[in-house]
């Protein structure tokens, strides 16, 4: 299929293929190409086997028909039939089509640069290393959040989770630090209970809303003015996110169509989410939304009240309610 599509594109004078390969995610392929009327690189990613289609629309056309559709899309317009194209990395490829390349577990350029990415900068390499050290990985494919089309808890109830509990910090009545400010041992007990309540504890998703400190480069060094009088201000740390995530991609979640950066990691990694206002400090920022791959539960952090709402099976809600050191209020 890929070879046939490439041959068709090469036969079209409007575009020239630079590279082509199967994506790291099964069922997907990607083609990097140049337009005859544009010097920039474009990338087209296709869900060739219908991996993310709805079940009722999952009939796979013949190979020749898929190849023809891909070739026609690439040759149609600069970004393919008017669809938006955004750079996945500074100076890199403008991707469009079915999401971004799925490099979740290998955020490094391949030796032959077959994806057209170019080499990682020192800042990006540092950012990837820091996230991986905490067990979290920002991801380019946001399809895991597609089921959250309504409000978080409407989605949680639709997934069959019957009960909800609200967790808060009993030693923080003013909600300054809130749930995220609980002792590490208490937070570990909470995430351990969540881990036991899913069949996929090693595969969970974390969504952080766009515009919060974790997702913005201009928050670096915000607290530099706390330096001792007369002392030089500490250097601003680099952005927390690799360059490719400063502009996109984003998951669109809920009725308000809010934009989120999506992370993958185990259930116990939530306390490691945060940002560094100075090179030697760390501010925990609890993820706005967390859920395991099997959707056995759903957690939503209420930023204004600094509380964590969790919807899930009754057994999980009871386990969370019995953890010492955290206030638990049954909501439903």
Entry keywords:
alpha+beta, 20% helix, nine-stranded antiparallel sheet, 332 residues, 2 domains
Description:
By secondary structure, the chain is an alpha+beta fold. The chain is 20% helix and 23% strand. The strands form three sheets. Strands 6, 7, 8, 9, 10, 13, 14, 15 and 16 form a nine-stranded antiparallel beta sheet that branches. Strand 11 (274-275) and strand 12 (283-284) form a beta hairpin.
Summarize the structure.
This protein has helices at 2-10, 63-76, 122-133, 152-158, 184-196, 244-247, 314-321, and strands at 15-22, 28-35, 41-47, 86-87, 94-97, 137-138, 163-168, 204-209, 251-253, 258-265, 274-275, 283-284, 289-292, 298-302, 307-312, 327-330. By secondary structure, the chain is α+β, with helices and mostly antiparallel strands. The termini are far apart.
How many structural domains does the protein architecture include? Answer: 2
Query: In sequence order, what are the helices and strands, one letter per element?
Result: HEEEHEEHEHEHEHEEEEEEEHE
- Low-pLDDT runs of 5+ residues are 51-58, 77-83, 103-118, 218-226
| Average of per-residue pLDDT values | 74
Q: Strand share of the residues? A: 15-25%
Which overall shape is indicated by the principal axes computed on the Cα atoms? globular
- The computed structural class is alpha+beta
The helix tally amounts to 7
* Rg over CA atoms: 22 Å
Oligomer: single chain
End-to-end Cα distance, whole Å, is 51 Å
What is the β-strand count?
A: 16
Biggest β-sheet: count, sense, barrel? 9 strands, antiparallel
Task: Tell me roughly what share of residues is in helical segments.
Answer: 10-25%
